[in-house]
Amino acid sequence: MPETIIDFYKPSDKMYVATDCLIFGFDEGQLKLLVFKRRVEPRRGEWSLIGSFVNLDEDVEVAAKRVLAEITGLENVFMEQLGAYGAAGRDPGYRTISIVQYALIRINDYDKKLVESHGAHWFDINEVPELVLDHDKMFAHGLEKLRRKARYQPIGFELLPEKFTIPQLQKLYEVIYQKELDGRNFRKKLLSLNVLIKLNEKDKSTSRRGAFLYKFDYKKYQQLLKSGYNFEIT
Amino acid sequence: MPETIIDFYKPSDKMYVATDCLIFGFDEGQLKLLVFKRRVEPRRGEWSLIGSFVNLDEDVEVAAKRVLAEITGLENVFMEQLGAYGAAGRDPGYRTISIVQYALIRINDYDKKLVESHGAHWFDINEVPELVLDHDKMFAHGLEKLRRKARYQPIGFELLPEKFTIPQLQKLYEVIYQKELDGRNFRKKLLSLNVLIKLNEKDKSTSRRGAFLYKFDYKKYQQLLKSGYNFEIT
DNA sequence: GATAATAAATGTAAAAATTACATTAATAAT
DNA sequence: ATTATTAATGTAATTTTTACATTTATTATC
User: Any idea which nucleotide's C1' is nearest the CA of B214?
Assistant: First the structure.
């Protein structure tokens, strides 16, 4: 019987454990990723995701939130694990496992000075430059996951301001799904989900007429979920 | 500027990296999980998932497949990452990150002697005993993921023999979804997906009349995917 | 060899959801 | 008052999903 299995108290080798973060934002009608330009050698000038090693006494999740807060000044942000990247040769230096998270942030909320000070830049997801190590793969997987998930869970709202208009929301889904949606059907569908609160305010930044602002009703959504409710946006 | 971030070449602390595996099977009309009873101290007699430490020169994924092969004798099995479990206090011994995979196996294929020799047992998913450490949480998450995923991806077939009948397939989806399905609508739906190959053979083990055997057409499925095909079983 | 028993297989109508599509409404600028 | 522009609305056709009952193939038994 192999000796390597289930032997929690005779562990063999230690490795470095890092966490990297895909930070998505929505701005100017585009879905964007925040990437970081290395300003130190080696690999100076290469683009990469933002990350950190995980401290010995620190939850992986806490480490990820620490990084995000240090970079953007944001706390209480939507963040979820994408997965662990653990190929033996993924980092040519030391053997390092990276646990990747993706975060969705409201692009107007973050601390722009802080972000700039870290050499970070937003790229349209269609124009993200080549990234260091296996970060390209992480990005590709994260984008896929975001696209899949947006369909069945109300994560899109994490990318919009708290108050948003239906046309804004539609544009967001259009860039996520990479296809045009019919305005009438989209509005009908969204309103039929019963989780939008119409406000008595308009956003006039994009039209003379102005568009009504809405909020997403998290409470209602949670309630509905309990009774077999199905959120889906096609 | 914080010193802890993106400093890949001044890593701080090493940790143990393990991989644990949720092994699902379908037998006697029940969805089952393979769990392992510790036969050595400490924690002798406690149930846990099957796992191993990851070797320094080994991909995490390879480690997981190694474990699965050592335990079941199976290779080329459906396996996917569930995620990394990295709470600082999850293992009271050493700081260990566990990367959890879930595997779907054909319950008639595995090496029963080998499995028994490792003190492993199949439990109906509704009767899984308390598991060691955070393995309960892993199991709960894995089951959720399996349920979600079964709906939009043809993973159910991984749990059935290569040749299966429609009623078998229906029963599988019934136990995954925990609800009864209408036989006529289920059959209609499945056949309309155009990815089942009807064979000229019957399985007579459950009825006098016998039920036709089918195979899942992976090639066709892959082709269809490319042209915007939507697999969904409700 | 007729009959009984049993699970497999099939069809159709009603209801619900999705799609396609064109016009009117509100407002600010000229 | 007119123009320009985006927001907002409704309806009919199509597709998908649901609900529901009978016939078919076969083996065992009388």
Answer: C8
